[in-house]
Amino acid sequence: MRLLPRRLPIVAGLALTALVTTQPGIAQARPPHERPVDVQLLSITDLHGYLRPHDDAANGTVKDAEGRTIVVGGAPYIATHLKRLRAGHKNSITFSTGDNFSGWPTEVAYHADEPTIEFLNRVGVEFSAVGNHELDLSPSFLRDHMGKGRCFGEIDVDSCFTDSTGRRFHGADFPFSAANVTAKGSDKPLLAPYVIRWVKPERGPKIPVGFINLTTPTTVNGSTSYQPGLDNLPLVETANRYAAELKRRGVEAIVANVHEGGTAGDVYDRCNANPTGPVFDFARQVTPDIDAIVTGHWHALFNCSVPDPAGDPRPVVEAANHGRLINEINLRIDPATRDVIRSATTSVNHPVTRDVPADPEMVTLVDHWVNRGAQTYARPVGTITGDLTRTRDADGESTLGNFAADAEYADSRRTPGGNADLAMVAVAPVKGSVALRGDLRYAKGTNPADADGTVLFGEAWSAFGYANPVVTVSVTGAAIEQALEQQWQTQANGSVRFAPLAVSGNVRYSYDATRPVGDRVNPADVLIDGRPLETGRTYRLAALAYTLIGDDGYTAFAGFTDAVRGSRDYEAFRAHFAQGPVTPPALDRATALR
């Protein structure tokens, strides 16, 4: 495995004549001695809405081969670099490898990730693979809202915001594509499995280039993208299937655009001697009919060449994340065979440096959404009569934790097919992310829009959640008892860690901390709607997907069934303020017996 050559001699004067298909079922003779067709591929991956330039090391820098730090990123600079890279290229195709949105900058996340679509539209992205985060809300959100601009809720409050040009959001000007995401039990892709782009030779008919778009097989069971109504098909088999289909359609030049990553060092344009990860396994196995592999998902940065199963090298590249790099692959296509001349392929990762002029239109775009973010932050969403805080009592209860559990319970009861019997929230998980992130105080804060008892949109956003869905599942009473027992976990040094779970307001339970770990809760002392827990009965439980799949460190819920996805944590939390002035919940749901 080696770094791809940056520059190779032009391959010209190919004395070949062939019958080639310009469209399915149509063939014509090509004259000899035609020059190869140069095709430039420009890609970004895992942008996650990072339009505003960031200055921290993780989001705003890369390292070069000498270990020097280069400051990078930001929509105004991505736009400038794309324009410069395209200059002089007759055939240039720009695309994304997924995870464009569902990110963390609030000026984007507050606005249904519409600012990212505005940016991608304006810099000329032609298509995008579906990353796992493209499915963080729902397939219909991706297809109908992001793709077609269909509004939901109140316009310019919940969706279809006014963009930086003064126009209402209209959706992506490009398609999203995923060959291996299907409805449950189906092998038919939910979206188009591939995209074909046509490039122009010096003379004669255009030549097709096919892009098979795939996402990590962990998508539909991931914590934020958890989609119980969908299936993931395997990567290699799916790519091989559609490569064969493209060839039947007369497409010989094929690229796999795969939202699945690996690691190959930490230098932005190098490849170490032993690259690892699922995308490299994919590269070693997938059909030689694929000429290049562009990847994402792991937020890694590498420029590798990996032999295909026939022993021929092909590029495998990943352009980091958050707009720090742009990958450029240059293909040379033989106009006679319409296939890629592998030996002439070059690839390079370009750092999105800030030593170029900032694109003025993108500066306006960023400023618009940052200012709009400040306005959205200050929008009132509810009122409280006292503090909702993370401060826990001796039993592990907090007013904020209890309120969050009630919000999840209410969301499930509103969700068709949810109908939870109870809800649980990991307020101090054994591992992983903490859902309770900030306190809500009765006293007004420093924001001019705030007042005593007022909860602002941004305050609620910062108090609870990390874009995780509320999922309602069927579990046994024994699993609920086990989860309550797992609040106490023995550590390697023999100490016992207390990792409390908040429960919804219709639950009361007692525990005996003097008993051994794993035997502190008696099912008879757990009351749901006033009735003792039955270990052999099936209950409907609402919790965050992160907790249910074990990422919080509680294993009790493994094997749950009949999952129904509700709102994301942010929306469920805000919606619970609609009941009117919120009084902090009493801390009376868990009681120590002694």
TrEMBL record:
One Pfam family hit: Metallophos
Gene3D superfamilies in the record: 3.60.21.10, 5'-Nucleotidase, C-terminal domain
InterPro entries, sorted: 5'-Nucleotdase_C, 5'-Nucleotdase_C_sf, 5_nucleotidase/apyrase, Calcineurin-like_PHP, Metallo-depent_PP-like
tRNA processing is among the record's keywords: no
Keywords, in A-Z order: Hydrolase, Nucleotide-binding, Signal
Protein name (database record): 5'-nucleotidase
Signal peptide: 1-29
Chain ranges of the Calcineurin-like phosphoesterase domain: 42-300
Family of this protein: Belongs to the 5'-nucleotidase family.
Stored SUPFAM superfamilies: 5'-nucleotidase (syn. UDP-sugar hydrolase), C-terminal domain, Metallo-dependent phosphatases
5'-Nucleotidase C-terminal domain segment(s): 380-558
